[in-house]
Amino acid sequence: MDVEIMTIGDELLYGQVVDTNSAFMGQQLGRLGLRVRQITSVSDRADELVAALDQARARVRVILMTGGLGPTKDDLTKHVLARYLGRALELHPPTLAHVEEIFRRFNRPMLDVNRQQALVPAGCQVLPNAVGTAPGMWLEDGETVFISLPGVPFEMKKLMSDEVLPRLQTKFKLAPIEHVVIMTAGLGESFLAEKIQDWEAALPANIKLAYLPSLGSVRLRLTGAPDGLPELRPRMLALLPELRARIGSYIFAEEDTPLEVVLGRLLLEKNYHLGTAESCTGGAVAQRLTSVPGCSAYFRGSIVAYDNDLKMSLLGVQADTLAAHGAVSEATVREMAEGARARLGCEVALATSGIAGPGGGTPDKPVGTTCIAVSTPAGTVSKLFVVDRGRATNIEYTSQVVLQQLWQQLKGAAE
Amino acid sequence: MDVEIMTIGDELLYGQVVDTNSAFMGQQLGRLGLRVRQITSVSDRADELVAALDQARARVRVILMTGGLGPTKDDLTKHVLARYLGRALELHPPTLAHVEEIFRRFNRPMLDVNRQQALVPAGCQVLPNAVGTAPGMWLEDGETVFISLPGVPFEMKKLMSDEVLPRLQTKFKLAPIEHVVIMTAGLGESFLAEKIQDWEAALPANIKLAYLPSLGSVRLRLTGAPDGLPELRPRMLALLPELRARIGSYIFAEEDTPLEVVLGRLLLEKNYHLGTAESCTGGAVAQRLTSVPGCSAYFRGSIVAYDNDLKMSLLGVQADTLAAHGAVSEATVREMAEGARARLGCEVALATSGIAGPGGGTPDKPVGTTCIAVSTPAGTVSKLFVVDRGRATNIEYTSQVVLQQLWQQLKGAAE
């Protein structure tokens, strides 16, 4: 069963907003065994939305729309959809009561545009939006299901899990596509491909391999299409020992799990606590580590010492070290990491210092020059590298490299 | 002149990767006066890519593709495009030399799949990729321009600015669309709309207003289409005084600038230094502040005190305060912010403490209970709020609220 995701709004086409909704919806639909055939982002113009609906309808049986349901003038989805399907807009009293209740709760005056959010196309099943004022809508027309959700991510997510996915599950019953994801770090896409060439060539016809590279990491995704035979997933998992034999030392997880979650498990296992001492990453490593629910069991804290004074006063870096080697040096990051272990009271600490750019480079230390260190009870390891891909990417890459280094040291493997 | 952006790869449809390329390309194309008519994400299947190319070709004159140019088996774009346009693949010697040079520089063995990256469709203009192995391609066929770029964001970005945009500028000469962006914080979309209803209704026909809400902030975007009259932009700017008269106290910038950049300017102006003391945000506020190039002129550092011990030892929070009020309390965040000013040596500091969830809530302090404080030489202001929209959103929202509070205090406005 094919689905098309349609995200609506000029802001997407102008690039003023990144469409994160589609990825979330794609993941959720894939788990149900529905295949996203295409993602289409269209403007707020009625004629273009209608043209996109016409084409989507010829491709798929389910069209899942987000956006254009807000209270303001540029929000047209509901009106266009009603006209497109030849339905009148009707007041939905439970939605009106819900909107009124929200405004009462926040003690705000109710506006006429807010009242209009309770209008829905005739014959539509309303998907109640517990966390916002615009309801979701489910409309069937001939063979096609049209679903319209608000574009605000947390409202869309709640409506997807509470309303859309259960209804899709009831309406269509299909053998789910199986995914097996293998997370690797430390080896580029083409080198991985070379190492597993024979293994990849021998995959069964219904199992496809994809390489999903991101900064410093490659996700390998096996996708198994139902072949009528039982136990597709166990057969996919049975392919893994041969994969491990080729690239085992680069695999940090055999499920779709970020490195920071794997690190959390390793730290808990070893009963280690973690802290960070950050300069160029400015808190980005701590932020990534604390994105994990329950991290307070092993994450103690972080000192972001952007200023050299603070590297000395808060982390105990020696003035002599800074004078002799500079803030961006292996000597300094080693003292930062060791200082963080002591000051943050943790067995393991990592440190970063670099020139993220675009300014601050010197002939000696150009932009992108970066040092990292990881200190554990077994000792301190440091590294220097020079890669400049712009400030944001430099920060992200440094965060990835230092977490990879931490993983190497925690799992106790040779570098 | 209409453009279609086409992003290629199963990983986009499965939602395993968020498509950030389209937003970047949309912004860049818009600045040139090109209009993105549609963004289409399609699979790695040749038949579906061909169908999408057929439809795009009927809609637009420029099709800008990313993805599917890597060295591995699932990368099909170049092959499909060559076949679609009836061109053979030919070796491009300068690209081969460039790929060989990259492998020499990194001292890595050159693989056959890497050599194949130097194959391009006959008659194509190669767009040299200085930062990667897959070249960009520019193909003209009849009235249509097909552009194919690698999907790795920093490679795509460099090729866009160095190659694609200059070539588009040369080929098509059009009056650019004008955007004026007004950044607001602290008032929801429908309340803003209500306050500026009369102003919006009086806008000229060729100037459209859009509301782009994000967490705690609404961007207002005026888009002016060329109307044959001179000075479109000055006429758009002349609309702003009347807008300011209605919502001036919520406007933090009259350009498309993030709050953290505006804060940096205010801090520099007042010669203040800033630090953060973070608990629930785990470094996210520092990360946002340090995303700004040149922030070291005013940002000193941050103490992420996840653990209560560290709130005391590093920030000087009193044990009595924690015992009497708990870590998530206005009393504690006030002491955190004031402690950070002293320990980080800065005139201004902010603090966060909350229950980000999903665990850790109590009947008294449910998940989403959050306290923030901002301390300046004029005093310390704190706030408590309870909003739960999931861990990641709670962290992002708290970061936004505390930065908004900082802005309020820096600009010296009444709350």
Topology of helices and strands:
Two copies of one chain form a homodimer.
Chain A: E1 2-8, H1 10-13, H2 21-31, E2 35-42, H3 46-59, E3 62-66, H4 77-84, E4 89-91, H5 93-105, H6 112-115, E5 119-121, E6 125-127, E7 136-141, E8 144-149, H7 153-171, E9 178-185, H8 189-195, H9 197-201, E10 207-214, E11 217-224, H10 232-237, H11 240-247, E12 251-253, H12 259-270, E13 274-278, H13 284-289, E14 299-305, H14 308-313, H15 319-325, H16 330-344, E15 348-354, E16 369-376, E17 379-386, H17 391-411
Parallel strand pairs in A: 1-2, 1-3, 3-8, 13-14, 13-15
Antiparallel strand pairs in A: 4-5, 6-7, 7-8, 9-11, 9-12, 10-11, 15-16, 16-17
Helix pairs in contact in A: 2-7, 12-17
Count the domains of chain A.
3
CATH-derived topology of the largest domain in chain A? Molybdenum Cofactor Biosythetic Enzyme, Chain A
**Cα separation of the termini of chain A:** 46 Å
Oligomer: homodimer
> Beta-strand percentage of chain A?
15-25%
